[in-house]
């Protein structure tokens, strides 16, 4: 078994304002921890809750693959190229910031918060044209098994996933009590497991909502649910 790095939910960094409650698995914004600067090309993994009608004002990004996975509610966005839209549960959006893009994100509802994961991956190339992609995944595609949400651009269309400018793969699964999924981490690769909700067990370790687990090198992961749960897995170089 390769070394495993546990990141308990309660140990994450936090940003809290009157409209935002954000938990940071890795250093982000004003939260800095030299022990948690990222995991391979995975640089940001924030769990955000945004109050009704509120959101992030226009801000810029460059040279980052930014993924958004909504757990509940609806997140709307606009960019300085005239693009706009909404992201709902079961939909993954990728924004390739490339050589630079300005956008805003906000809760599209006036009566309920939006709860989502914001994920940043460092791309394998710099200063490319910005771009968006968004795809909906049917609930049955995630039920009791891994669903490949994102993969390198060269293979994404063939497997029904969103393309990434990085040799990374993002999977998600929704489990009920007694169900389990497995993942083999290849030599020279690493994996990050993130519990979006519920409670799981992996290698004798109980993981709750918001917990993360990093694995470096060859390993066999078996993730078993204690009850209803949703889990994401990043297979990374």
UniProtKB/TrEMBL annotation:
Its cofactor is Fe cation. Keywords: Iron, Metal-binding. The keyword Iron applies. InterPro entries: Pirin, Pirin_N_dom, Quercetinase_C, RmlC-like_jellyroll, RmlC_Cupin_sf. CDD domains: cupin_Yhhw_C, cupin_Yhhw_N. Binds 1 Fe cation per subunit. Residues 13-121 form the Pirin N-terminal domain. Residues 159-236 form the Quercetin 2,3-dioxygenase C-terminal cupin domain. The keyword Iron applies. GO terms for molecular function: metal ion binding. Coiled coil: none annotated. Fe cation binds at residues 59, 61, 103, 105. Belongs to the pirin family. This is Pirin family protein. The lineage of its organism: Bacteria, Pseudomonadati, Pseudomonadota, Gammaproteobacteria, Lysobacterales.
